Amino acid sequence: MIGVTILGSTGSIGKSTLDVLRRHTNRYKVIALTANGNAQELLEQCAEFQPVYAVLADQEAASTIQTGLSERSPATQLLAGKQALEFVAQLPEIEYVMAAIVGAAGLLPALAAVRSGKRLLLANKEALVISGTLFLEEARRNSAQILPIDSEHNAVFQCMPARFEQGLNQVGVKRILLTASGGPFRTMPMEELAGVSPEQACAHPNWDMGRKISVDSATMMNKGLEVIEACLLFNASPDQVQVVLHPQSVIHSLVEYADGSTLAQMGNPDMRTPIAHALAWPDRIESGVEGLDLFSVARLDFEPPDEARFPCLALAYRAIRDGGSSPAVLNAANEVAVEAFLNSRIAFTAIPEIIAAVMDRIPVAEVLDLEGVLEIDRQARSMAEELIVNKNQESGVSKS
Ligand code: NAD
Ligand code: MG
Known about the structure:
By secondary structure, the protein is α/β, with parallel strands linked by helices. It is built from 17 helices and eleven strands. Helix 2 (39-49) links the parallel strand 2 and strand 3.
């Protein structure tokens, strides 16, 4: 039996992971489940999976389920606080950790898993984007395996030759083609974008996801973060990673080889496929996802992304080319701006404006250690918040 910790079990990826594990109780044992504040959902999950640990990052939320937990999952120990997330990511009785917390909040627990040599199933792209090579070096030093859950990177991993870590040129790989659906606003008239609501932005045409990544998909910052993620995971230069709009989300990404071959991984858009792939790799297991019906798919369309419509994509390329602290600044500013948009404090079109302004104001610096990453993350967050407050004051003044 393989012991598994799921960081962020109450989220969209967390629930899809539990759905795969539910089908393979003879192969995997859920040892720890964690959530931020959704105590009731965590309690229900514990009642079903009877883990050894349940963790709530929010201390107050934890007290609300202590009684329920001792009745419905008496062997489960309830822990609270951020450090408990790191604790359950490095337990000796686990081999795999699903990193499915959203945003930079997932960095330290994901790093704890890597430092203790676990197989890390990486959904939490922000953790990798902000810590970059530091994260990968920790994995190498501790023989931790990182398997991508992001559907595009999982697809690329499936299409890569076995020895890709030696360098893409050495193994005859020319380019990585990351597919993108274009989100809900791919064809909306540009002048309407400023007025879209959080609900419209979260209504993704093909994928059912958490709110933050849904907004990222609507701005295409999600694809920008994924370009950075691909450069890191596959040791590619930004020029070797091309984004291709593919509205049907059936091809999850492609790898182009020197001999003219292009390999693609296809499937219905359901995260249980990459999750099952990474859980079982190098084997294959049932995920609950139906195979593709090519006759009902019928056609596949491709187009280049529109840079004017999706300025976040160019900002992400700028960040990876600048290197150093720049991806961490991009990510922090984006997290703050998306949260402000979701709380109706700024317009959808202000998201890239805030990010660009923060990137312009914080000079690119070398990032030497984790402390440096966390410091730059704090600095970029407070700069973004300040710009949002100023922006709102200015518009308040002009309105009155
Ligand atoms: P979600 O919002 O549905 O779930 C997030 C989970 O993280 C929840 O369990 C929540 O309780 C927990 N969490 C949030 N903030 C936390 C904090 N401060 N401390 C501790 N726990 C916290 O998000 P999601 O859609 O499942 O996405 C999770 C990650 O996976 C993101 O990084 C996202 O980019 C990535 N991802 C998601 C999908 C998808 O289809 N949903 C696809 C690819 C990649
Ligand atoms: Mg993705």
